[in-house]
Amino acid sequence: MEAKVLVNKRRVSPKAHIGEVVNNFHSSRSLGWRLFSRDIKAEYRQSYIGIFWALVPPIITTILWVFLNQSSLVNVSDTGVPYPAFVLTSTLLWTIFVKSLNMPMGEMRKYLPLLSKVKFPDEAMIISGILKIYFAVMIRLGLFMLALLVFPIELSWTLLLVPLGLITLTLLGVAIGLFLAPIGLLYTDVGRIIQLMVPFWMLATPVVYPEPKEGLATIVNEYNPVTPVLSITRELLIYGDASRLSELVLMFISLTLLFIMFYIILKASIPFLIERN
User: Fold this and answer.
1) Is the pLDDT of residue 45 over 70?
2) Is 98 helix (H, G, I), strand (E, B) or coil?
3) DSSP per-residue letters across 143-203
4) From the CB of residue 178, how many other CB atoms can be counted at a distance below 10 Å?
5) By percentage, how much of the chain surpasses pLDDT 70?
6) pTM exceeds 0.85 for this model
7) 116-120, long-range: CB within 8 Å, 24+ apart, which pairs?
8) What residues does each domain of the chain span?
């Protein structure tokens, strides 16, 4: 007698997917913290100046662009605040984006071999990566505080809104990184292209110059997803301008949904990536 087996396929709603992702991230906090602590200790264990290496890139970038501006090799219009403080602040924000962009692929590449041997929630990798981003940010904020002492920058209540801008900038980088990670883990060319494009992307973003109001640069910045988030966060940080806050809130909500969607896609591809690697 031939037995017939009926398989009921349960359709999972997008709301259920989102709820599952949120719950997984919440339950993976402890493991994510342990991975973060281990990686930070390993990174700086054999370094003489340790975490202060995190200060070197923004200092060098600031010195370089201040030299170019004062030498008239690059003419930057009035920034409203001392130019060194402007560049230092903008470089800090750009660094958050770049680290967020590279984080998903870097964390997956590091822990993918372990996932093939030991089963643990892969959300912990993302939590660990985000913690490492903000660990570096907290160190660099020391430079910003120093800039406040050296240059006459008037602080405003809008500083309270800066965390929203930082989180939105992180969400933008991580979302793009999650989108590229499955392809990048299969083909190393993707990671190399990203590293090649980052310097040009920075020049196409108002990092070392104010947001342009006319000309070709205006068109480029209009289609650059980093420009509005970075500019609004900078306005909150050093200009005390919250006029574009509603735009920032809308981007935060949209990027949160994109983050969840791209993470679900990456999570679904992990078994295939483990098999291919």
Assistant:
1) no
2) helix
3) HHHHHHHHS-----GGGGGHHHHHHHHHHHHHHHHHHHHHHHHH-THHHHHHHHHHHHHHH
4) 25
5) 82
6) no
7) 116/274, 116/277, 120/31
8) 50-276
